[in-house]
């Protein structure tokens, strides 16, 4: 039985690109429900419409048909974190983290205090006055995460945020995000190519088909919360990863 008051609810959602007679069907039809406080990971083959789904949720794209609704008490309910960081080179680290608060016209003193609190929480306090050029890739992604969370979003949308990082740093940031989201219980929709990432982070892992992307499977990682990165060594982790890979391999195979 589904949540009677989901945070996000998509019904018969489709998206195409181009104009007739050359329309490319990118997504759907797709049904999706995300409960308040739930962390949902979406995996699927390249080009299946994962990022398109996220951009519709963020209000950056309109669906071709169907609808996606976010139940919210805020005029700006969602924050989006991209793979390429999306931070501004000409702004200091503090100003980058404060950016969403400035857009919301939060008073500067309060905005600085909230930005500094998030910089401290993510280990960036010593770099508040630095500029992104002085930061490593991992630090830049921490800045992007801090900026997203500083606005206290009701829905956090993450589009392969760790894809550009090396394996060791990716694991570290996965574990940091796991700890953060478990303490905040922020509703999160997370797009990834990494099955390991999806299993470590997700309450649910949704598998999408090849284009046009539809949800073809749903798995609940069998690890209770609070959860740590140590689940990677659990035999059930390996078994679920293998099962998901079998699904994806079939979808990615040439027709």
TrEMBL record:
Family matches, as PANTHER family: ALIPHATIC SULFONATES IMPORT ATP-BINDING PROTEIN SSUB (PTHR42788:SF13), TAURINE IMPORT ATP-BINDING PROTEIN-RELATED (PTHR42788)
Alphabetized Gene3D superfamilies for the sequence: P-loop containing nucleotide triphosphate hydrolases (3.40.50.300)
Protein name: ABC transporter ATP-binding protein
InterPro entries: AAA+_ATPase, ABC_transporter-like_ATP-bd, ABC_transporter-like_CS, ABC_transporter_ATP-bind, P-loop_NTPase
Signal peptide stretch: none
SMART domains: AAA
Organism, scientific name: Streptomyces cylindrosporus
Pfam families: ABC_tran
UniProt superkingdom: Bacteria
Keyword tags: ATP-binding, Nucleotide-binding, Transport
GO MF terms held by the record: ATP binding
Record domain ABC transporter: where: 8-235
């Amino acid at each position: 039985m589904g949540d009677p008051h989901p945070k996000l609810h998509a019904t018969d959602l489709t998206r195409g690109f181009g104009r007739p007679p050359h329309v490319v069907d990118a997504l759907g039809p797709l049904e999706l429900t995300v409960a308040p406080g739930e962390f949902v990971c979406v995996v699927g083959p390249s080009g299946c419409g994962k990022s398109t789904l996220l951009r519709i949720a963020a209000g950056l794209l309109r669906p071709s048909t169907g609808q996606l609704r976010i139940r919210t008490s805020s005029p700006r309910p969602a924050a989006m974190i991209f793979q390429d960081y999306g931070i501004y080179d000409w702004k200091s680290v503090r100003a980058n983290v404060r950016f969403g608060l400035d857009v919301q016209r939060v008073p500067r003193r309060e905005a600085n205090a909230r930005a500094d609190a998030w910089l401290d929480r993510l280990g960036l306090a010593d770099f508040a006055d630095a500029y992104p050029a002085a930061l490593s890739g991992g630090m830049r992604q921490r800045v992007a995460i801090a900026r997203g969370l500083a606005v206290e979003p009701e829905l956090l949308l993450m589009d392969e945020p760790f894809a550009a990082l090396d394996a060791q740093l990716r694991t570290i940031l996965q574990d940091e995000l796991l700890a953060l989201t478990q303490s905040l219980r922020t509703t999160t929709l997370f797009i990834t190519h990494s099955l390991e990432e999806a299993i470590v982070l997700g309450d649910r892992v949704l598998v999408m088909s090849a284009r046009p992307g539809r949800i073809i499977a749903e798995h609940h990682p069998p690890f209770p919360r609070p959860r740590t990165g140590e689940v990677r060594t659990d035999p059930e982790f390996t078994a679920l990863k293998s099962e998901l890979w079998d699904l994806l391999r079939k979808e990615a195979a040439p027709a």
